[in-house]
């Protein structure tokens, strides 16, 4: 394995980490539109919290997929063909979720406005759940042949481990979204988000324990990399406890950062367990290795130069967009009083 191969494996991990940190709260806020908000005024405020950011946050996913295609074409081909139906459903969820924000704002009737609000809520839920289910089922090993083709059945993708992983990621995204609402709003919405997270964090801890048990039983992570796997899992639990404490202490930034880093730690756990593989086969002989899945050295070298040139500009613009819209939004009850 060359240094460039290792670099691009890590960069793809960083891109997915950025996606789950940023799009994670987008998914959580999206789920809250119908389940959390009490009326249309509150739904307007909740949607405005992510209005300037949600489409930019999805760019991290597109970039991760593009980087995977260019740097590890065999990984891309195996994953995207083997998980074609799951990824198709994710795409449908993301499309409905994306267009719902625009269509809702232009609807004249209550019925159609409600329809697109439900589309945003269900789309956010399905996308988060399917992402969690896909990555969880992937790390337990899939039926790969010598050519890297997956010949899976329904139980390859839908099983106890993948379902628990899907629920856990969905719950983590929803909690992350609640922490974002605490950070971006004042008044009743912020107080209610805090109250909800006080109840949800104990459920998340139970879910994390169940996930660790199934991870031990189902994957080879503890067998191959016990020390690093335990370190990451301990960090995940500590970050969850810090976020929970931040909610109780009304330390909004602390709770938000810790819940986001909890999602990042899940990505780190997955990439740590994968290394030096990119796809894990039920028969480990057929697992796809980083050194065998990558593009040519020239392609990786050219991609590295382009990335180092363009990335700083993109990051500056990205940070600037968040700085422009940093102010908190008032709850409807506060607007009525003022």
Report what the structure shows.
This protein is mainly α and 338 residues long. It is built from 15 helices and four strands. A two-stranded parallel ribbon has the order 1-4. The radius of gyration is 20 Å and the shape is globular. The mean pLDDT is 90.
Q: Based on helices, strands and strand pairing, what is the structural class? A: mainly alpha
Walk across the major sheet and give the strand order.
1-4
Number of helices: 15
Distance between the termini: 63 Å
Contiguous low-pLDDT stretches (5 residues minimum) are none
Mean pLDDT: 90
What share of residues are in beta strands?
A: under 5%
Number of strands: 4
Note the run of SSEs as H and E.
HHHHHHHHEHHHHEEHHEH
Shape summary: globular
Helix percent band: over 70%
Main sheet properties? 2 strands, parallel
Rg over C-alpha atoms, rounded to the nearest angstrom: 20 Å
Topology of this structure?
Elements lengths: L2 H33 L4 H11 L3 H18 L1 H10 L1 H23 L3 H30 L14 H4 L2 H25 E2 L1 H31 L2 H4 L1 H23 L3 H23 L2 E3 L8 E2 H4 L3 H28 L4 E2 L1 H6 L1
Parallel strand pairs: 1-4
Antiparallel strand pairs: 2-3
Helix pairs in contact: 1-2, 1-3, 1-6, 1-8, 1-12, 3-4, 5-6, 6-8, 8-9, 8-12, 9-11, 11-12
